[in-house]
Amino acid sequence: MAYRNPAPTVDIIIELTDRPQRPIILIERLYEPLGWAIPGGFVDYGESVETAAIREAKEEIGLDIQLLEQFHVYSAPGRDQRKHTISIVFLAAAQGTPMAGDDAKHFKLFNLWELPENLCFDHGKILQDYWLYRHYGRRPTLG
């Protein structure tokens, strides 16, 4: 029997610290599943999750980021319709003007209270958890 393991991914909630209200960056995906997403992607073999987060941010939005902390791990088997993934979510800061690249069709800056409805994967849940953390200091619970 062949083993089937989940694929490790990273998602990076990036606040632009040089703008009022510190908006976050979301990308509109170029490939399926279509919609808005937190920048991120798959961890390459031999790469740390921290290095993957920095690389994915540079590829998708063209900015160098400063990783601030690991936020939470999301691993529900159905979180990605393509296959079972485990995402390590990071909080990061950046400055400058983003540029859509790699598999990002567009980017847009959003305040946490004005998010688009068509979020991909479980990114609505992730951003809701982040909103609670940012405003009330409540981290997501396990389970």
UniProtKB/TrEMBL annotation:
Alphabetical list of Gene3D superfamilies matching this protein: Nucleoside Triphosphate Pyrophosphohydrolase (3.90.79.10)
Superkingdom of the organism of origin: Bacteria
Similarity comment: Belongs to the Nudix hydrolase family.
Domain Nudix hydrolase: 3-133
InterPro entries on file: Nudix_hydrolase, NUDIX_hydrolase-like_dom_sf, NUDIX_hydrolase_CS, NUDIX_hydrolase_dom
SUPFAM superfamilies: Nudix (SSF55811)
Keyword Membrane applies: no
Protein name listed in UniProt: NUDIX hydrolase
Keyword check for Disulfide bond: no
PANTHER family reported in the protein's UniProt record: ADP-RIBOSE PYROPHOSPHATASE, DIHYDRONEOPTERIN TRIPHOSPHATE DIPHOSPHATASE
An annotated Gene Ontology molecular function: hydrolase activity
Assigned keywords, A-Z: Hydrolase
